[in-house]
């Protein structure tokens, strides 16, 4: 029997909860079985930054795992998945994964994916960065993790925050190998259509 396509989604407490929400919205219309973990801090961030409730975000996933459930299916390498996306990824979560501190299910699931050679994409949401952040990011990358800061693609001329979020999520899905039509693809300078320029501001 063929194993279904499965993807683990972790939401930590960093700013940028909408990134995880948009990711789940997109994946809901696919055949991919999503396994969601929301940290306690992420629940507060969802409530603070968006009009969503954490309970409604959970409804977007196929399976929801409590953050403290270290005995969950996704805590074992024998449970096959296509990898994991952490959206957004906080400094605390990044550091825990980088240094093997697997005391919650997000860090444990990421550690399992890395040891099994499965991709882990971390939408790392922090700036500016000090040397400790950079060391943790380097350690994570050396373990096989993919650091993906949520940097807007300005060549796509995003007009709204929603445009930028959608483009970022499309690129993340590209990186983990999931086909999508969210990304405005680069076609070269000659093919780019510039938006209409705004008239200069007249003071006085």
End-to-end Cα distance: 73 Å
What amount of the residues lies in strands? 5-15%
Task: List low-pLDDT spans.
Answer: none
Q: Give, in spatial order, the strands making up the sheet with the most strands.
A: 3-2-1-4-5-6
Number of helices: 7
Structural class: alpha/beta
- The total beta strand count reads 6
Oligomer: single chain
Annotate the secondary structure layout.
Elements: E1 6-11, H1 17-28, E2 33-38, H2 40-49, H3 54-58, E3 63-65, E4 84-89, H4 91-98, H5 105-115, E5 120-124, H6 131-142, E6 146-147, H7 161-176
Helix pairs in contact: 1-7, 4-5, 4-6
What does this structure look like?
- The chain has 204 residues and is an alpha/beta fold.
- Helix content is 36%, strand content 14%.
- The protein has helices spanning 17-28, 40-49, 54-58, 91-98, 105-115, 131-142, 161-176; strands at 6-11, 33-38, 63-65, 84-89, 120-124, 146-147.
- It has a 6-stranded parallel sheet, sandwiched between helices.
- Strand 5 (120-124), helix 6 (131-142) and strand 6 (146-147) form a beta-alpha-beta unit.
- Helix 1 packs across helix 7 (161-176) and helix 4 packs across helix 5 (105-115).
- The longest helix has 16 residues, at 161-176.
- The radius of gyration is 18 Å and the shape is globular.
- The mean pLDDT is 94.
């Amino acid at each position: 029997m063929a194993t279904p396509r499965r993807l683990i989604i972790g939401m930590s407490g960093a700013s940028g909860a909408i990134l995880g929400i948009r990711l789940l919205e997109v994946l809901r219309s696919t055949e991919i079985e999503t396994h969601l973990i929301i940290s306690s801090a992420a629940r507060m961030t969802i409530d603070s930054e968006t009009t969503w409730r954490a309970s409604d975000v959970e409804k977007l996933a196929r399976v929801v795992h409590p953050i403290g459930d270290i005995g969950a299916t996704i805590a074992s390498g024998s449970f096959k998945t296509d990898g994991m996306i952490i959206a957004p990824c906080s400094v605390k979560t990044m550091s825990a994964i980088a240094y093997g501190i697997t005391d919650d299910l997000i860090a444990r699931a990421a550690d399992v994916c890395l040891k099994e050679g499965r991709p882990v994409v971390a939408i790392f949401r922090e700036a500016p960065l000090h040397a400790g952040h950079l060391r943790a990011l380097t350690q994570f990358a050396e373990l096989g993790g993919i650091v993906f800061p949520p940097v807007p693609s300005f060549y796509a001329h995003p007009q709204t925050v929603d445009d930028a979020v959608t483009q970022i999520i499309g690129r993340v899905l590209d990186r983990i190998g999931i086909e999508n039509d969210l990304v405005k693809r680069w076609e070269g300078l000659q093919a780019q259509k510039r938006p209409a320029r705004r008239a200069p501001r007249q003071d006085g």
